[in-house]
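Table S2 (continued). Query chain:
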Amino acid sequence: MTQVHQLYQLQKLDTEIDDKKKRLGDVLKAQKEPPALVAVRQRAAVAAAELQKWQGKHQNLTLEVGSVSAKAKTSETRLYSGKVTNTKELTDLQHEIEALARRKAALEDEVLEVLVKVEDAQREKTAADEALSTAAAQWEKQSAHLKADQNELALALHKLMQSRQSKAAVVDAASMQEYEQLRKQKHGLAVAGLRVNMCLGCRTTVSANKVKEVDEGRKVYCGGCGRLLVTP
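Corresponding output:
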């Protein structure tokens, strides 16, 4: 096998390696959580925070209602105990009890309003959690396929790299250096196949003399793209 044919075999391997590396990169990128799942997760977090806010508000109001009720009860006990005889003090106690009753009524109205908010927030949290559970399950299934693809590609690349190392070992240093330079200059394709009289790298027609030289295994470069030519 001529050096050109050895380089062609190496080129086929390198092309496959490049394709596998690109695919592996795409698979790794695809394993990042999709925007739809991120949005659903954010919705669930917002819903949980909103529910916690209204539950906290309800708890605080309930405690305040209890405090006002206790204070009103204390004032009523004092008012009707018979121990207070000062008219002004009795009047003040009566006013205080009335004010506390108004405050309690206002707080209870607020408690009812907040309860509605709690129920709304609970419904939204339930819906958001269900949406997240569904989306996460779908993503987990998809991600499992991606990880399987990743493992398969990594294994294939490992085998291809071992094969490349073996094939590169039989190519002389000068030819290898030229091949690597051409690969860099020609977007990864240093050696192009020749079909009848056409370069498969750039579709340029090759002269009969060059075709003859290629068939003889000599180093021939395409006049159109500058790649090495070889008969597959």
